[in-house]
Amino acid sequence: MKSFFIRFGGPLIAGALAVFLVAAMKVPEGLTALQAKHERIRRLEEENAALAKDIAEKTERIHNLRDSPSGQELEIRKRLKLQRAGETAIIIHDQDKK
């Protein structure tokens, strides 16, 4: 009995593996779908990394503004388009935005 498994077990396993690989390539959800999923995962990981970097930059900016009253004033004046008495503002219009 042992000699049967020793003699035919290796080729039998190799044959089953070959049948499995051929079936995996033929099935529409086979290797092509797996590659597409890996590509999508890679793109999402890149997007997550970019978003994490953006969040870190914005968090740092918030901390800097929280600790700097002059930075807060400058940001408020810039957003509300305010200026102090005697200051001159230069407004440049883009030629493309007509």
Task: Pick out its properties.
98 residues; mainly alpha; rod-shaped
Query: Which descriptor suits the 3D outline?
Result: rod-shaped
Total E-strand runs = 0
Q: What does the radius of gyration come to?
A: 32 Å
Tally of helical runs: 3
Task: Write down the secondary-structure element order.
Answer: HHH
Question: What is the beta-strand fraction?
Answer: under 5%
| Average pLDDT taken over every residue | 83
The span between the termini is 89 Å
What structural category characterises the helix and strand content?
Answer: mainly alpha
Largest sheet: none
Low-confidence stretches: none
Describe this protein's structure.
Helix content is 76%, strand content 0%. The chain has a domain at 29-80. It is mainly alpha-helical.
Brief rundown of the structure:
By secondary structure, the protein is an all-alpha fold. It has a domain at 29-80. The chain is built from three helices and no strands.
Write the layout of secondary structure elements.
Blueprint: H1 2-26, H2 31-67, H3 69-80
